[in-house]
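Quarterly update from the structural biology core.
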Amino acid sequence: MTWYSDAPPPEVARARGHWRRVVWRGGRIAAVIGAGVLVTLLLRGPERALHGLERPWTQPVTVFVMGRVLAILDIALTVEGSPMTGPGAVVANHVSWLDIFALNARKRVYFVAKSEVSGWPAIGFLARLVGTVFIRRDPREAKAQTGILAARLGAGQRLLFFPEGSSTDGLRVLPFKSTLFQALRGLGEGVKVQPVTLIYEAPEGQDARFYGWWGDMELGAHLGQVLGAARQGRVRIICHPPLDVAGYPDRKALALACEHAVRAGMDAR
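Predicted structure, tokenized:
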């Protein structure tokens, strides 16, 4: 699914020095990501042999790279509340490709993505390299998905997915789809899921939807918009109290409880 707005995307004027900032920031980001890929490739072989699904060596590399990307962009990041510790799931509203950097910069999480992403040029390779879990959003495959998620949680990982199924303009929370919550319910007692609200604050003088990426907006154009911004805003990560999966009668009730928590964070911004 792709979310479309009734209002057109904001018109963003290019400030003086736009392309210089695109090249300067883009080049540094490419160098940081490239170095991270190289280090991860060198470490992942022996790490896999010694630790299997666990990533005690390469996951810190991912966290460092994501944090450096935000620093290069000069986007401030604040975390409110207490991030969940230990294995479990994290669910958040989806605003932009920037979500991946913001959520990974402070939390050691592994994203759950649709299976098609694994075949995307460059992005698919990077997603596989950092341990992304690929699944099909099909209720008929819930049993198989449960097995995949159970193996990851058993390795102490925290899994993150976007139940809205689409990115938005950052001013709303779409209804949560409940498919993946069924897989979580099949993991037994003690599994928790933490709702997280992502709030982007636009640079001074820009449209409030500046960081949102939705509908037919081209990735390249949006990348250029963010890279070339003379001023940047910030992103707030609001961590709500984790919910006990076993405390809800079905996947729809669990999905709705998470949606309400994320929406409350958005409404209180």
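The CA atoms of residues 194 and 242 lie 4 Å apart.
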